[in-house]
Amino acid sequence: MHDGSGRIAVQNLSKRFGSIAAVQNLSFTVEPGSVTGFLGPNGAGKTTTLRMLLGLVTPSAGIATINGRPHDQLGNPARVVGSVLENEGFHPRRTARNHLLVYAAAIGVPDRRADEVLGLVGLSPAADRRAGEFSLGMRQRLALATALLGDPQVLVLDEPANGLDPEGIAWLRKFLRSFAQQGRTVLVSSHLLAEVEQTIDQVVIISAGMTRYFGTIDELRKRQQPRVFVRVSDAAKLATALQEAGLTQLESMPDGHLAVAGATVEQVGDLALTTGVAVYGMHEDKADLEKMYFGLTAGQFTAQHGPPPPPRQQYYQQQQQYYQQPPQGWGGQR
Ligand SMILES: Nc1ncnc2c1ncn2[C@@H]1O[C@H](COP(=O)(O)OP(=O)(O)OP(=O)(O)O)[C@@H](O)[C@H]1O
């Protein structure tokens, strides 16, 4: 049987659909008590990965486990993991409560659980309305209620904020956090960092089916370096002075600015003054998580067809420093 840990482990997971490498050697873990974001642009392989985790797609290589077991070895999986995937279908003429009663019977939980989960997702007032009349946001809540029927230890949600209004998103955020605070596990996919940034503790970022970053969101924030952009009378002279002062991460921008990473405007201004170059303009580019996410996932479509052209290539390579190798010690491929 499974180990009851609430841990999700994805190890060297790959999936090919003919010539398309949808997922390539992906590895990450999701621990209980946390909300983990699973981020990547459209077509990055998120849904395919989640479907492999949930036993709906067979991996070409590698293994995805929940509680130490692949999905098909979980016994009564609805008691362990609840999931909401894209395009969940509901019988349009069935009421929300009836829909839940059918599922409750299928997984062997008492009927009263249907009303409990309707309450949990804020759908009690709509219990007797037909699902066909529901808005997209209400359907998302009903799908979540269905996932919660078995009182699972683990929740896996694919783009759950789709169709939710700002109030719905705020509600979902609070719900997922309190679910995780009970020592449960939440893995939530999105293609928008901003949508999940305030909800998640951990993040797995993928692009073109490969892991680009795996770690805490705080660590990701810390890795960002603000840059100072300066336009001067003699950029080469200032660059030499900056390097001598230990500020070596420099880049000449196409618009003539010199970008200096890890420096303050005061440092750059003072150095320009002592070096004797005139400053025509200067601004600081504050650390921006969204920009960094974009940098990590940029090139998804160019990477497979040769290197992207400069200056993007330069930027892309810079971002590689943020790439964090998955933890060592994974088992081999299955
Ligand atoms: N059943 C399938 N047959 C063929 N190709 C597939 C199949 N499912 C997914 N793919 C391809 O695998 C790649 C990854 O798709 P996937 O749906 O996993 O990405 P995603 O990150 O979930 O994207 P989105 O955010 O748009 O939902 C895409 O190129 C997609 O076209």
UniProtKB/TrEMBL annotation:
Single annotated GO MF: ATP hydrolysis activity
One of the Pfam families matching this protein, by short name: ABC_tran
Key word Nucleotide-binding present: yes
Descriptive protein name: ABC transporter ATP-binding protein
Annotated Low complexity bias: 313-328
Protein family: Belongs to the ABC transporter superfamily.
Species in which this protein is naturally found: Amycolatopsis suaedae
ABC transporter domain segment(s): 8-233
Keywords (A to Z) from UniProt: ATP-binding, Nucleotide-binding, Transport
Location of region: Disordered: 300-334
Entries under PROSITE patterns matching the protein: ABC_TRANSPORTER_1, ABC_TRANSPORTER_2
Keyword Nucleotide-binding: yes
